[in-house]
Amino acid sequence: MTLCLTIGCSRPRSQLGFMSSPTSLRLRWLGIPPSCENARCCESSPRQRWLSPVSLGAYAKYMPRYKRHGLLTAYLIFKLIAYSATLFAYVFAADRILATAPSLPRWTLSVFIVWCVVGLIATVAIFQWKMWGFYAICALGIAGFVLNLYAHVSPVMASLGLLGPVILYGLLRLGGERNAWSQLQ
């Protein structure tokens, strides 16, 4: 059972459902200060797992409205696809990778697999407006640079991995009012 918040609802009280706990506790659970006396809570079906700003009325100002630039969204989707494809390649084509790069130690593939998983998690965190996702991607870029140098990759090719965090930072700063950097938590 999920929570449905109705403010000034026009439905009859009999259709609102069972009032199981005080409104103020439910509003605090949602992160909304309980100041409106017209707010009523009802138990609703599991299919109604959303709260629209229209139904929130006076509480809409407490709900954050995040805006993301389209280029940042496209780049994050690209990173999700790239990390997934790289993870797939490291898991299912490890022998081919080691055959083409005989100087590469076998354990580095395991490290790269873990880094791909961490990269996927960090990218999803940025989608969810978490600052630590950006810092995790920066750490992955620096660690990848060091590991590529250790694996005897040319310095120019190894430094290309540092472009990812730089591009991401630029896209986070892009957009004026929709500047995603200031919205990260």
Question: Would you spell out the secondary-structure blueprint of this structure?
Answer:
Layout: E1 2-7, H1 23-30, E2 39-44, H2 53-56, H3 70-92, H4 94-100, H5 106-127, H6 131-150, H7 155-159, H8 163-173
Antiparallel strand pairs: 1-2
Description:
This protein has 185 residues and is mainly α. The chain has two domains: 2-62, no CATH class; 70-183, no CATH class. It is built from eight helices and two strands. The protein has a two-stranded antiparallel sheet. α3 runs antiparallel to α5 (106-127), α5 (106-127) runs antiparallel to α6 (131-150) and α6 (131-150) packs antiparallel against α8. It is elongated and about 60 Å long. The two termini are 29 Å apart. 16% of the residues are buried. The model is unreliable at 1-50 (pLDDT under 50).
Number of strands: 2
Largest sheet: 2 strands, antiparallel
Helix and strand content put the structural class at mainly alpha
Proportion of strand residues: 5-15%
User: What's the average pLDDT?
Assistant: 76
